[in-house]
Amino acid sequence: MTTQQRPVPAGYALPDYDEAFPDPDRVVPQALAEDAAKPVEQRAAERTERMTTAAALGRPDRVPVFIGAGYLVTEMGGVTRQQAYEDPDLHIELVLRACDYLQPDSLTGAWHHPGPSMALGDRSTRWPGHGLGPDGSFQYAEAEFMKAGDYDDFLEDPTDWALRTYLPRVFEKLEPLATLPHFGMASFGYYNLAHLAPMGSPQMLEAMIALGEAAKAQQAFLGNAARTSQALVANGFAAPPRYGFIVEAPFDYMSDTLRGMKGIFLDLRQRPEKLLAAQQKALKIQLRAVKDYRDRLGGSAVFIPLHRGSDGFMSLKQFDQFYWPQFEEFMLGLIDLGVTPWVFYEGVWDQRLEYLTRLPAGKSVGLFQNSDIFRVKEIVGDTMCIMGGMPVSLLRSGSREQIREHTHALCERVGAGGGFIMSTSVRELESCDPVRVRAWTDATRDFGVYG
Amino acid sequence: MTAELVDAIAEMRDDEAVPLAEKLLETGTRPIDILGACREAMAIVGRRFEEGEYFVPELILAGEMLREISELVKPLLAASSDVAKHGRIVLGTVAGDIHDIGKDIVYFMLDVNGFEVHDLGVDVPVDTFVEKVRELQPQVLALSGFLTLSYDAMKETVEALVQAGIRDTVKVMIGGGTVDEQVREYAGADAFGSDAMAAVTLARQWIGVAA
User: Fold this and answer.
1) What's the pLDDT tens digit per position in B57-81?
2) Are strands A365-368 and A340-345 parallel, antiparallel or unpaired?
3) Which of A141, A268, A425 is nearest residue B178 as measured by Cβ atoms?
C-alpha cells in the first residue's frame, strides 16, 4: 500500500476494519493480497478495463465497484467540507485514503467546487462555508429565474436573453450585463462599435473581473480533478468516468435552472406550445455545445441527471407529450456524436422503464436511484449498463448480514451476464459508516466474480 | 352557480375559474360560499391525485386558482371563517436541508384532506420543531428531508423531543428522497412515507379520521 508515503491528515482515525466487522467467512483478504501483489500499473489497468467493459454492456472478470463517496471522504478524514474545498491537495489525499480503506475500482470525492459560484455571487447554490455551515451539504436552490413572460424573448434569441436578463438575475456580480445593448447587434461589425460604450462602465469592468475570477477558479477545479484522476491511477485505481459535462433532458433544462418546478408545471397546463418550442431550442443548443466539447476538448461522455420525468411528477400522457420524445431525440443526438450519456434516473422510474428499451443498446449508462433494481435489470438489462443498487441507508445503519445479503442478490441478479457497475443509490455517502461501506465492497468481491 | 366554480377548478379550466368567482361576488354570492366551493373543488382535485388521474401539474394549477380566488374573497370576509379541522399537524424540512418540493406537495394533500397544517418551512432548526410542538400541541409532526444528511437532523429532532419530555405527545412521520424503513428506525420516527398519499393515510390513522 502507498499510504505510508503520504502525510496523514490531522484527525484521521478509522476503525480497524477487521476488528470492527470480524468475519470468518470472508474470502476477501486473499483476493486483496493477490491484488496488492500486482504492480500498481497492472492494478489500475485491470480496474479501468473492468469499468469500461461493464459500461459498454460487456462482462468483465468481476463486478466493478464505483463509489460516489462525496463528503464521506472528509468525514473519514476528520476535516470539514469547507477545509477540503479550500485545500485541493488535502482533498486528493482524502480521496486516496478512502480508496485504500474502501478498496473500490474507482471513487469520486466531494461535489465540484464553490470557487466559481463565490466569484460570481451565485444566488442559485449553497456551499459548505458559503450560505451553509462548514459541514453543510451542497444544494441547488431552485427558483423562478425565468418568468412566464420571458418565453417570447427566450424563443426569439435565447443567447441574448440569457446574457442580459437571466445571468443578472442568477449572479449578483453579473448584474451590469443588464445594461448592455442587444447582442444581436454584434453581427453589425464596425457600425455596432458605436454601442460599445456601456461596456466601459466601472460596474461592467468589475463584472468582467468577476467573470475572469470565476473562470480561473473553474480552471483550477478542472486541474485538480485531473490531478485527482492521475493520483488514483498512480495508486492502482481507475480514474472515474470522464463525465464532467452536465446536460439535461430538454424539459429539465427549462425547469431546473429557468422556470423552477412550479413555473414549468404551470407552463405545461397554461402555455404548452411555448414550452414545447423552448424545449426544441434547449435540445439544439445542448447538442451543439456537446459537439464543441467533443471537438475541442475530446469529451467522450456527458452526465444527465433526470428530474421531473420520474414517476409521480407528471402523468404518462404528459410524459408522452412533454418529456420522453424530446429526451429520446436528445439521447439519439448525443449517441450520434459518439458521446456516451451517463444518465441518472433520479427518483423512481418503475412505471416508465419500458420507454428506456427504445434507446440503442450499449450506448448509454443508467444510474438508478430508487427504482426496483431487479426489474430494471429485467427490462433494460440488454439496453444499457446499470449502475446503482445499494441503498445508502443500509450503508449507514444496516447490519453486516443485511449488507452482504443484498450485495449477494445484486451480484447474482443484476450482475448476471455483465453490464453492471455496483454503486449506491445516490452519488453521495455523507454520514455513511466507512466500515459498512467496506463490508459492501468486500461482499462484492466475494459474490461478484464471473465464472 | 357555485357548482360551476367547483367544476371549473376541478376540471382545470383556470381561465374560467377566476372570472367566475368575480362574477359570483358581483351578483351577491356570499364570500364564504365561494370559499366553500373552492374547498369542495380542492377535495376533488386531491382525490383525483390520489387515484392517479391528476399529477403535480394539476395540484400546482389548482393551488394557483385557489390563491387568486382567495385574494379576491378574503378581504371581504368579516371575521374568521375557518371550518373545523380534523387535527393539527406541524410540518417542515429538517435542519441543513432547503428542499421544499416534496414538503409542499405533502402540505397540499394534508390541507385539502381537512387537516390544520402548520408549515415551518425549510432548514428548520431542531429547537424550532420542539418549540412549535410544545406551543401548538399537534397530534402529528411531519419531517421532510431530501439529503442523506437529513437523516441525522431527523434523528436529532426526535431525540430533542425525547429530551424535552414531549415525544409521547406526538406521532412523528418522515419522508423525502431516499427515506425508507432503515432510516425510520435510525431516526426513531413512528413511520415513513414514500409519497404524499402515505402522509394522508398515516395522519388519518393516527388522528382517527375515516377516509
Assistant:
1) 999 999 899 889 988 887 887 655 5
2) parallel
3) A425
Cell representation of residue B14: 383556470
Residues 37 through 96 of chain B touching chain A, CB cutoff 8 Å: 52-58, 60-61, 64, 96
Does B56 sit within 8 Å of A132, measured CB to CB? Answer: no
Q: Which of residues 66-95 of A touch B (CB under 8 A)?
A: none
What sign does the CA torsion over B158, B162, B165, B171 have?
positive
* Chain Cα centroid distance, residue A177: 30
Furthest CA-CA distance within chain B: 58
H/E stretch holding A18: helix A17-20
Cα radius of gyration rounded to whole Å, chain B: 18
Q: Which residues of A377-415 are buried (b: 16+ CB within 10 A; e: fewer)?
A: bebbbebbbbbbbbbbbbbbbbebeebbebbeebbeebb
pLDDT by residue (tens digit) across A167-180? Answer: 999 999 999 999 99
Residue with cell 447582442: A183
Say if CB A213 and CB A119 are below 8 A apart: yes
| Global confidence as pTM | 0.90
Q: What are phi and psi of A6, to 5 degrees?
A: -110, 150
Return all residues near B39 (Cβ < 8 A) that are at least 6 apart: B83, B112
Helices then strands, each counted (H, E), chain B: 9, 5
ipTM, interface predicted TM-score of the complex: 0.87
Instruction: Compute CA distances A358 → A329, A354, B14, whole Å.
Output: 11, 8, 36
Instruction: Identify the sign of the CA torsion A230, A232, A237, A240.
Output: negative
Separation between Cα atoms, residue A376 and residue A386, nearest integer Å: 8
Flag whether residue B108 sits within 8 Å of chain A, measured between CB atoms: no
CB pairs < 8 Å spanning A and B:
87
DSSP assignment letter at A240: P
Tens of pLDDT, residue by residue over B142-177, are 999 988 888 999 999 999 999 999 999 999 999 987
For residue A313, the chain B residues in CB contact (below 8 A) are: 55-56
Cross-strand partners of A139: A126
Instruction: Report d(CA B66, CA B5) in Å as an integer.
Output: 11
Instruction: Report CA A143 to chain centroid distance, whole Å.
Output: 21
Q: Which of A137, A368, A427 to mutate to test the interface with B (most CBs of B within 10 A)?
A: A137
For chain B, the residue count is 211
Nine cell digits for residue A311? 414517476
Beta carbons of B58 and A98 less than 8 angstroms apart: no
CB A3 within 8 A of CB A421: no
Q: Which of A264, A431, A432, A440 is the best substitution to test chain B (most B C-beta atoms within 10 A)?
A: A431
Q: Does B121 touch chain A (CB under 8 A)?
A: no
Distance, CA of A253 to CA of A243 (rounded, Å):
18
Tell whether the torsion through CA atoms of A398, A448, A40 and A237 is positive or negative.
negative
* Nearest-10 Cα torsion for A150, A153, A158, A160: -110
Q: Kindly give, in sequence order, each residue whose CB lies less than 8 Å from that of residue A422, ignoring residues fewer than 6 positions away.
A: A63, A64, A65, A66, A389, A390, A407, A410, A411, A415, A444, A448
Rounded to whole angstroms, how far apart are CA atoms A347 and B177?
Answer: 8
Asked if B178 lies within 8 A of A391 by C-beta distance, the reply is yes
Disruptive mutation site among A75, A111, A126, A269 for chain B (greatest number of B CBs within 10 Å): A269
State residue B81's pLDDT score: 54
